[in-house]
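Dear all,

This email documents one entry for the complex benchmark we are building for the journal club exercise. For each entry we list the sequence lines for every component of the assembly. Then comes the predicted three-dimensional structure of the complex as a token string, followed by one or two observations. Please use this as the template for your own entries, and keep the labels exactly as they appear.
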Amino acid sequence: MERPRITIFDTTLRDGEQSPGCSMNVQEKLRLAQQLDRLGVDVIEAGFPIASDGDFEAVQSISASLRRPIIAGLARACTGDVDRAWQALQGAARPRIHVFLATSDIHLKYKLRITREKCLEQARDAVRHAKSLCPDVEFSPEDATRTEVAFLCRVVEAAIAAGATTVNIPDTVGYSMPEEYGNLIGTLREKVTGIDKVTISTHCHNDLGLAVANSLAGVQAGARQVECAINGIGERAGNASLEEIVMAMRVRPDRYPYETAVAGEHLYPSSQMLAEITRVPVQPNKAIIGRNAFAHEAGIHQDGMLKNPLTYEIMTPQSVGVPDSRLVLGKHSGRHALALRCEQLGHQFERRELDEIYRRFVILADRIKKVQDSHLLELIQDVASGNVSSDVTGSKGKKFPPAAATLQFPRAVSAAAGPNASDSHPAQVSGSAGQASVSIPFTDHHSEQEDYLWGV
Ligand SMILES: [Zn+2]
């Protein structure tokens, strides 16, 4: 039987970017959008065009450069916002206008100061206007989960009648519980005329740590689009984490028999790129892409892993793009291996750039033997900032540990846990369990961010 296809709507560049410390400039947004395209998300919410010129420009340049994914621009339910969003989306091959309006009594009374009837009318008018410009219109009743259900049904019905093709049900304040959220989706499907003709979407915030659970409950109840963000960034405690949603469905198809078009091997590179751009590190124990997500330190776990990875591993690091650290980068590594590792760290290069990085890499590898990811990232940064090569490989030794230093990470055990691990690289798991975690020789300029980037 064919599994229902779930549309992955990425809002890293909109809701995610709105969160404190995560703002990005136009170039950074474009770079991340290109990575999201490689990742295979279906919809990229590129920004909120009326919010600022920078947002407008970002939506415009992403629209102009990506052809495959749908590009969405956010708009409040008013003509000016909708027009501005549409203007920004002009170059898009597949534009979507995303209109939102709060519907809960508390928002109507204190934020918007309008009646329910006015709210209904405003939603209908804005969707109708958006529809007159763009065939693909999404409507979100903000704070849906705290809206009286009967009124929510009326607003959603009005939006569908006015031409919305996707209705998104935001748990804006992260208040819902999984069963409750699933029931709400079920009620809408039961009571709203025309809802079977549109896509129902989830948009769950993580204030109680339930964003992913709520989204999955929504999918089980019939939602076919999930709004989510890389590393789970977003307002306050964040959005549903894209990587967790995708991998929950992939690892447990028995419970969640749904398909997405996401390329798992691009999850980790996407996470790395976002952390690098925003300089907001990921918590080490973050599911799927955290530094410790595949690390095994306890002796009994390591023993089990070496005998058979399935003892403690429900998915392989490779399936989410965590670099295989059995592949040590040294002076004998080829350009292909180098390009691949760069890609896994979230960097794609043109041929000429790669030539320069490779040239410096060989010099460095000659000096320090084993080139770690952190070295590579520094080297990439140096090339990008146009520093002369002596800065990287100079004899001062400021940037890199001396050649004699060997660096070991807890991750090494997990990453060495392939079928031939114990035969081919016994050295990587040498030392007893207690010694597996050896301190990493940071130099003075290493920040917390770089600590995170050591993660493989
Ligand atoms: Zn949100």
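Observations: Residues 182 and 218 are 5 Å apart (CA to CA). The beta strands are 7-10, 43-47, 70-76, 95-102, 137-142, 166-171, 199-204, 225-228.
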